[in-house]
Amino acid sequence: MKISIDTFLANKLFKKSKLTCNLSMKGTADSEFNFFAKNNQLHLQTINDYCQQIINTKIDVGSDFETFSCEANLTSDFANIYTSDKLNMIYSADKNIVHLGDKSAKCVVLANDGSDFIPFNFIPKSIVFDVPGNSLWHALNYTAFSTSKESMINAVYLNFDSAYLTAYSFDDRRMSRFRIKIGENCPEFESFFIPKETAEILINLLQDNTVTFEVGQRHLKLSWEDTILILSLVQIDKKTYPDLNKFFRKDDKAEFKVNKSELTKALKLAGLVAKNSFINIELKDKTLIFTGSDKERGSTQNKIECISSTNSGEVQVLHKDLMDCISKTEDEELVFKIKEIDEDKLSLCLIHGNFNHLLMPIVSKDDNEEE
C-alpha cells in the first residue's frame, strides 16, 4: 500500500503532530504517528497523557487503505532531510514496516497496525460555541507561563461569562489575568481548567481562525480547519479556586511608566549576579534603582529615569519572573503599579492592556535572618 505526500506538506504535518507526542515514551503509541483513513481521506493521529490530536491531511486514499503507525521521530527526521519533492510511504502489513523515500534515499521504519492507539473517550454535552482563535491564543500565552508544578493547581483557568473570556493562572510567586471580549456567542458561566502542558501545546497549534468548543463530561473538543484536539480537563471544584481578582484590586501605593528597552538593559545588568535570585527595585523621585546582590559573587546597582511616576515604593522580586512577564509585552512603554497586598507587603504589578501580572513580594534570606 503506497501513499505519496508533498514533502513540504509532510514536514509541516509531522512538525505539528509531534507537538502532541510524548517522544520519550519509545515503543508506545505516545511516540508514534498513526495514519488512518476517514471518508477516503488520510488522517494523522497523535496522543499523549493530556490530549489527542487528529489532522485531516486532505489527501485522498483508496478504500483498501490499511491503518498503520510508526515512530514519529525517525519518520519526521528522515522527511526533514529528504530532498525529493514527493515523500513516498509504502506500508507492508505482513512485514510490519514502512518504506519511506525513493530509490535515491530511503528509510525503513518499524510499524504496526495502530491497534495500540486508544482514542480518548469523549462524552459530549449539549454545549457548543465558537471562540476567535487569536483571542484564545492570547489568553493562554499571557497566563500559561505563570503556573508551575509548584502550584497547587498547575492549570490555566478559562472563564466564559457575559461575552468575555477571562484567563487566570498562578503559583506561589506570581499570578496572571487576561480578559478579552469575544462576542455574543460566548456562553454564560462556563469555565474549564486546562493543564499547563496542554495550554503550551495550544499556544503552538492555534491559528488566527475560529475555534469550535464542544464540551464533554471530562474533556474538551476543540476544532478548527483541519484539526481536532481532544484534551483532558483538570477535575477540581471551581469553588476551591482562589479569587485572584481581589489581589489585582488591592490599593496602589505607587505607579510608574518606563521605557521597555531601558528597563530590559537595567535588568540584564542586575542579572549579572542575581539571575537566579531576587532583585531590589526602588522607586524614588521619578528614578528606578535596581540592586542585585550575591554573597558569593558581589553586587550591582544601576538607575534609569521613569517616563512618569507617582509616589515612591520599594519591592523585591525574582529576576527571572520579572523578565518572563516583560517578554510577553509588545509595547515600548510599560506601566507598573506597586500594590500593598497585605500589611507592609508590597508587590509589583504589570498593567499591559488586557493583561495584568502580579509578582508576589519576595523576602530575602538576609531579611529572614535579621528577624
Question: Keywords, please?
Answer:
8 helices; about 375 residues; 25 strands; disordered C terminus; alpha+beta; elongated; 9-stranded antiparallel sheet; 12-stranded antiparallel sheet
Model description:
With 371 residues, this protein is of the alpha+beta class. 20% of the residues lie in helices and 46% in strands. The chain contains eight helices and 25 strands. The protein has a twelve-stranded antiparallel β-sheet. The longest helix has 15 residues, at 260-274. It is elongated, with a radius of gyration of 25 Å. 32% of the residues are buried. The model is unreliable at 365-371 (pLDDT under 50).
Q: What count of helical segments does DSSP give?
A: 8
Averaged pLDDT: 93
Main β-sheet, in a few words? Answer: 12 strands, antiparallel
Q: Strand order, main sheet: write it out.
A: 1-6-7-8-5-2-3-4-16-15-14-9
Q: Beta-sheet strand percentage?
A: over 45%
Would you tell me the structural class of the helices and strands?
A: alpha+beta
Indicate the overall shape.
elongated
State the share of residues found in helices, binned by percent.
10-25%
List low-pLDDT spans.
Answer: 365-371
**Radius of gyration (Å):** 25 Å
How far apart lie the N and C ends? 74 Å
Q: Care to count the β-strands?
A: 25
